[in-house]
Amino acid sequence: MVVRTNVCLAQTLREEHILAFAGATVHDCFNWLSVLVLLPLEALSGLLRRLSQAVVDALQLSGGEDAPELLKVLTKPLTELIVQLDQSVITAIAAGDQSARNKSLVKRWCQISTIMVCLLHSSIMCRHLFAGCSLSDLAIGLILLACSLLVLCGCLILLVKLLNSLLKGQVAKASNSVVNTDFPHPFTWLAGYLAVFVGAGMTFLVQSSSVFTSAITPLVGIGVISIERVYPLTLGSNLGTTTTALLAALASPGDKLAAATQVALCHFFFNLLGILLWYPIPATRLPIRMACALGKQTARYGFSFSFE
Description:
Shape: globular
Low-confidence stretches: 113-120, 303-308
Helix content: 55-70%
Largest sheet: 2 strands, antiparallel
Oligomer: single chain
Distance between the termini: 24 Å
């Protein structure tokens, strides 16, 4: 939510800000409405638990290999140059080992296998920015947090500026006509469902719903994508992001596979039932109206900022 809201704050014109804020918050309105309906229903009937348990019982699952890392293949080499975390310490803390709480989470030394002695291991200093420093974990975390926020805000502002400069004039008209095109009557309703599948596929590729929805938020502000079309894209993104949890669950050991898969399926069924509640019938698409109202309220009370 924060990332998408930061994107819309880069819209300097009032009308663009209203549209961008609506596009940024339609996802959150959908989640809130789904929680308000499905949480009491789950507490009373255990619907999600029963559905996920039925699927787990019907599938013959066995412990798998590690879940594939799609986006991390590109980002991991860079992040490992900045900081590396000691996974053994994190695992020990999660398992309740009190002695591990006094250990540093930042990896200082790395184990490498030697060719000369096959059964022995030697340690060398890890190659990242904080490997040899004496700063505490709190100080390192605060430094990384401040730097990441600066990079995030800078990239978001540049993204909006770049899209504003590229998608103008004839390019904007052409993009608008392609993205918001509907199928001929009586198949006009298919366009929205196709957008759901597109949103799910794109989110699966980037492994992050925040990345996908943040990328399309400025397009809503400059009028390339309508709020009615970004809504099914967002719903598809909600479904696409469940694949990350499912892949991680399928990589669990055999004794924990069923429980991990059931949790991931609960996430999937929550989003699927939410779509069935707030999309098929046009009158139930309340998140669109709520998001538009929020956009108008923020513009009314002066939350539109200029970065020029």
